[in-house]
Amino acid sequence: MSATPEKLIEMRGVKLQFADKVILNGVDFSVRAQEVLVIMGLSGGGKSTLLSILLGLLKPNAGAVFFKEEDLTKLSRPKLNEARTHMGMVYQNAALISSMTVRENIGLPLEELSDKNASEIASIIDQKLELVGLKDAGDKLPSELSGGMEKRVGLARALALEPELVLFDEPSAGLDPINSKLIDDLIIQLRDKQKVTSIVVTHEMDSAFAVATRMAFLDQGKIILEAAPGEFRDSDNPIVSKFLSSYTDHERSKK
Ligand SMILES: Nc1ncnc2c1ncn2[C@@H]1O[C@H](COP(=O)(O)OP(=O)(O)OP(=O)(O)O)[C@@H](O)[C@H]1O
Ligand SMILES: [Mg+2]
User: Fold this and answer.
1) Secondary structure of residue 236 in the 3-state scheme
2) 167: CA distance to ligand 1 center in Å?
């Protein structure tokens, strides 16, 4: 019998406001190891903010954020930094350092957060470049890359420390269908072959349903629905079904 998958991440009652504007108003959800949770919601609803809280970059005004049993909101700076070495983030805009080559960008977390030597780092960089299909792009600068290549370098960098949890903020936004599918396939491959757990924020419906093992909808600062993909698609929650049907119409009109 296989082991029961454990909760890797859990948010409980998370509240966050910027000045007097309430963004998150009691967010509850959990993610088990090796799941891919897709989070959807309207623009400006707080999805990127939620990812920043999961990474420990933003401290919520209330609530708890458990990562492997430890509440990130209560950890000392060194312990938080240690926890962060187990998480990778793929930023919406790739967020590469423009003066560094692709290799240097991917190696950065290893230089900063691991005690690996230069040849170990070089071999990890080779392996990650291969994984994202960019073996020959190592010496290029970010300005020489297409948007799809930049995203893949961002993913390679997020994977450098072999994280257990990878957070994706709109990984396929702005990509053509081929690059978009490449990223989806990598997310699935990470889950199946490397037992990586992912949280993916996206509003690309095809991608969402391709990668998700579970889906959640954030609205008015709360998760209003959390369900398996089939149940999510058929939900009679009026906000979710309106969102899904308007995106389906929108994507159909693009084809
Ligand atoms: N550092 C900040 N200071 C003040 N307000 C902020 C800050 N970061 C985000 N906000 C506000 O918080 C709200 C939620 O932003 P967030 O970027 O999390 O939304 P989102 O769901 O990711 O949107 P999108 O789908 O457009 O990426 C927005 O109204 C935004 O203007
Ligand atoms: Mg966002």
Assistant:
1) coil
2) 17
Q: Note whether 217 and 200 are same-domain residues.
A: yes
DSSP 79-112: HHHHHHTTEEEE-TT----TTS-HHHHHHHHHHH
- Considering only CA atoms, which residue is closest to atom 4 of ligand 1? 18
User: What's the 43 CA to ligand 2 centre distance in angstroms?
Assistant: 7
pTM exceeds cut of 0.90: yes
Instruction: Name the domain count of the chain.
Output: 2
Specify the pLDDT at position 248: 66
Q: Does residue 187 form part of some domain?
A: no
CA 194 – CA 10 distance, rounded (Å): 21
- Protein residue closest via CA to atom 18 of ligand 1: 46
- Please report the pLDDT score of residue 170 as a whole number: 92
Residues flanking ligand 1, CB < 6 Å: 18, 23, 41, 43-49
- How many Å lie between the centroid of ligand 2 and the Cα of residue 116? 33
Task: Check whether residue 112 and residue 37 sit in a common domain.
Answer: no
Residue 85 sits at φ, ψ, to 5 deg, of: -70, -15
Q: Is 252 found in the same domain as 170?
A: yes
Residues 79, 170, single domain; the answer is: yes
Structural domain range at position 112: 96-162
Residue spans of the chain under pLDDT 50: 1-4
* Structural domain includes residue 188: no
